[in-house]
């Protein structure tokens, strides 16, 4: 990286706090007049991903689940394997029943590439029919489907060709998106091409805790660039083949990415902490969010890697900004670390079961920040691992209040998807974290679902929006 550019990045990071100041929450009963605060047709739903709930899969993650890190530590906590998961592949009717009970009018789920295209060029029409039947059944139940095409997993045949380290994956995924959109387009308008490019880059290629387990920021930057290129190609393909307006709003498609946004809070006022927090923010948050406006991929880790490239089709490739928001990180510079910092939560802050800070004000901050870019926003994920089930009601309430506050201040926020409908396979953390509004008994043969206390909170929000939860 040249000195002038570094100085520019550094100067921007030092002089501008990218996050607007937090709001004071709880000052008013923000849930009382939801219909006046939120747009008509606001989507209230839950989100899941195929590998985490369907069961019976065979892909790069199932391979990873059986392995161990070079030091002998298993890749997955307690040596858990995804296995039968929630068996949602066979239980969608039951799951739709749970959504009706919540009063939800939307559901975000992903289709599994390894199931639909088990070998290169093959196509499992039965599985495709089943996904189409899901989308139709959701629609018939008054639940708008949002379909994610890529949520972390790759078919083995893609992974063995190098996965996201191979440029070919861009075209393979675009071809897959074309087939999916052709098949499901009659029932689906809302598409999410890729879930969390920054998380894939960080966890698979910097921290090495997701497959393929590498720790190389240079590779991570190129992976993220490839994912954005794939998004651009997928968007073109979907727009071309999905010409059916399934929800009657005059548009056949609305396409975006589910972008994981974190608050990177400098741990102190020292210029180095602020510089590193700013650079991390640019890499993790800003590169994806600015891409559809600049048409460029701009990624930089000073002295390590720089990607600055115009990408055909990227400009205008988001119809909405999807935001996955969970937490805030406090950033202490450590230039020996591959991530240039150590991230932590101060001892006096509330945390969830995985030790992540509970920071609802952060949702308001990110909505204000990304709402200002001019695209409609969906909160495509927000949730909490909470085994007791007792913390989730206030978590949901406070985060929804933050959303309402941002909407009242003019942010065009069109929907909220809670992560998650069910407890599920939480990647490297296995089955211990419990994210579900409905608890799943993984030991029972029927993967029994039972409500957690936050179901009532969700129903309260649904009623506030004029939706009608069904009796359980
Ligand atoms: C991912 C989900 C995951 C959730 C909770 C998100 O980053 O999209 O797959 O389960 O966070 O960690």
UniProtKB/TrEMBL annotation:
The keyword tRNA-binding does not apply. It comes from the Bacteria. GO terms for molecular function: beta-glucosidase activity. GO terms for biological process: carbohydrate metabolic process. It holds the Pfam family Glyco_hydro_1. Keywords: Glycosidase, Hydrolase. The keyword Iron does not apply. Belongs to the glycosyl hydrolase 1 family. This is Family 1 glycosylhydrolase. It comes from Polyangium spumosum. The lineage of its organism: Bacteria, Pseudomonadati, Myxococcota, Polyangia, Polyangiales.
